[in-house]
Write a structure and sequence with these properties.
4 helices; 20% strand; alpha/beta; two-stranded antiparallel ribbon
Length: 111
Amino acid sequence: GAPMSAFTRIAREPIHERGAIAQPDLVVVADDTLLTDLAAQPLAGCDASCTVLINSTKAETELRQADASYAGRLLAADFTASHSDMDFVRFCKKRLSSAELVESQYSIGCG
Protein backbone atom coordinates (compact mmCIF):
# COMPACT_ATOMS: atom_id res chain seq x y z
CA GLY A 1 0.00 0.00 0.00
CA ALA A 2 0.84 3.66 -0.10
CA PRO A 3 2.69 5.35 2.77
CA MET A 4 0.33 7.00 5.26
CA SER A 5 0.68 9.09 8.36
CA ALA A 6 -1.51 10.04 11.30
CA PHE A 7 -0.94 12.09 14.42
CA THR A 8 -2.25 12.54 17.93
CA ARG A 9 -1.76 15.55 20.18
CA ILE A 10 -1.52 14.87 23.91
CA ALA A 11 -1.80 17.63 26.52
CA ARG A 12 -3.12 18.31 30.02
CA GLU A 13 -5.21 21.24 28.80
CA PRO A 14 -7.83 21.34 26.00
CA ILE A 15 -6.35 21.03 22.51
CA HIS A 16 -7.39 23.67 19.99
CA GLU A 17 -4.64 23.21 17.36
CA ARG A 18 -5.72 20.91 14.51
CA GLY A 19 -2.81 21.34 12.09
CA ALA A 20 0.04 19.01 11.27
CA ILE A 21 2.68 18.44 13.95
CA ALA A 22 5.93 20.11 12.90
CA GLN A 23 8.16 18.88 15.75
CA PRO A 24 6.90 15.60 17.25
CA ASP A 25 7.93 14.27 20.65
CA LEU A 26 7.24 10.65 19.68
CA VAL A 27 7.09 8.94 16.27
CA VAL A 28 5.99 5.34 15.67
CA VAL A 29 7.12 3.81 12.36
CA ALA A 30 5.16 0.65 11.52
CA ASP A 31 7.35 -0.34 8.54
CA ASP A 32 11.11 0.28 8.50
CA THR A 33 11.16 0.63 4.69
CA LEU A 34 9.47 4.02 5.20
CA LEU A 35 12.73 5.38 6.65
CA THR A 36 14.22 5.59 3.15
CA ASP A 37 10.96 6.53 1.36
CA LEU A 38 11.34 10.11 0.10
CA ALA A 39 7.56 10.60 -0.01
CA ALA A 40 6.92 9.35 3.54
CA GLN A 41 9.78 11.06 5.46
CA PRO A 42 8.65 9.75 8.86
CA LEU A 43 11.50 11.47 10.70
CA ALA A 44 10.81 14.92 9.24
CA GLY A 45 10.76 17.46 12.06
CA CYS A 46 12.34 15.09 14.58
CA ASP A 47 15.05 16.62 16.74
CA ALA A 48 17.31 15.18 19.45
CA SER A 49 14.45 15.26 22.01
CA CYS A 50 12.15 13.08 19.87
CA THR A 51 11.80 9.35 20.54
CA VAL A 52 11.29 7.07 17.53
CA LEU A 53 9.79 3.56 17.91
CA ILE A 54 10.31 1.36 14.84
CA ASN A 55 8.72 -1.99 14.01
CA SER A 56 11.70 -3.82 12.50
CA THR A 57 13.81 -6.95 12.57
CA LYS A 58 16.92 -4.82 11.97
CA ALA A 59 19.31 -3.65 14.67
CA GLU A 60 18.99 -0.08 15.90
CA THR A 61 22.46 0.77 14.54
CA GLU A 62 21.45 -0.40 11.05
CA LEU A 63 18.22 1.61 11.18
CA ARG A 64 20.09 4.71 12.30
CA GLN A 65 22.17 4.51 9.10
CA ALA A 66 18.97 5.01 7.06
CA ASP A 67 18.81 8.59 8.35
CA ALA A 68 22.20 9.55 9.75
CA SER A 69 20.96 13.08 10.51
CA TYR A 70 18.59 11.83 13.27
CA ALA A 71 20.33 12.15 16.65
CA GLY A 72 17.47 11.36 19.03
CA ARG A 73 16.40 8.20 20.84
CA LEU A 74 15.64 5.28 18.52
CA LEU A 75 14.03 2.06 19.78
CA ALA A 76 13.35 -0.93 17.52
CA ALA A 77 11.62 -4.29 17.95
CA ASP A 78 9.80 -6.79 15.74
CA PHE A 79 6.16 -6.26 16.70
CA THR A 80 4.88 -7.91 13.52
CA ALA A 81 6.20 -11.33 14.57
CA SER A 82 4.77 -11.04 18.08
CA HIS A 83 1.17 -10.53 16.87
CA SER A 84 0.29 -8.96 20.20
CA ASP A 85 -0.50 -5.37 21.15
CA MET A 86 0.54 -6.26 24.70
CA ASP A 87 4.08 -7.01 23.50
CA PHE A 88 4.25 -3.43 22.21
CA VAL A 89 2.95 -2.07 25.52
CA ARG A 90 5.42 -4.19 27.54
CA PHE A 91 8.28 -3.05 25.29
CA CYS A 92 7.36 0.61 25.78
CA LYS A 93 7.07 0.24 29.56
CA LYS A 94 10.47 -1.46 29.69
CA ARG A 95 12.32 0.97 27.41
CA LEU A 96 10.73 4.33 28.18
CA SER A 97 11.06 6.21 31.45
CA SER A 98 8.11 6.63 33.80
CA ALA A 99 8.06 10.36 32.97
CA GLU A 100 7.52 9.54 29.29
CA LEU A 101 4.79 7.04 30.12
CA VAL A 102 2.86 9.62 32.15
CA GLU A 103 2.04 11.27 28.82
CA SER A 104 -0.57 8.56 28.25
CA GLN A 105 -2.64 10.04 31.10
CA TYR A 106 -3.16 13.35 29.26
CA SER A 107 -6.15 14.32 27.13
CA ILE A 108 -5.83 13.32 23.48
CA GLY A 109 -6.79 15.13 20.27
CA CYS A 110 -6.50 13.28 16.98
CA GLY A 111 -5.92 14.72 13.54
